[in-house]
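Acyl carrier protein structure dump, as promised
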Amino acid sequence: MKLDEICSILTDHIMKQFQIESDDDEFTPDVHLFDYGYIDSFGATELTSFVESRFEIEVTKKDLMLHKMNTINEIAAFVAMKRGN
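structure tokens r here:
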């Protein structure tokens, strides 16, 4: 799976799950999802579960400490790395 495909899947899910309007100019692949208030701590848990099930990977506590996963691009890069892409 290519990085842009992972980004697209993540973007679609986040927009739908967290009710982000399609015309939100601040919502980009590089926006800090937590600092900008798109996702809270409960949302982070949901997003982690989605990433694990959709991309068939495990996100460990160590992964969360070692890898930045605050933006769509960072999450997509992490997914690609875990999948060996």
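Residues 3-17+38-83 form one domain.
lmk if u need the other ones
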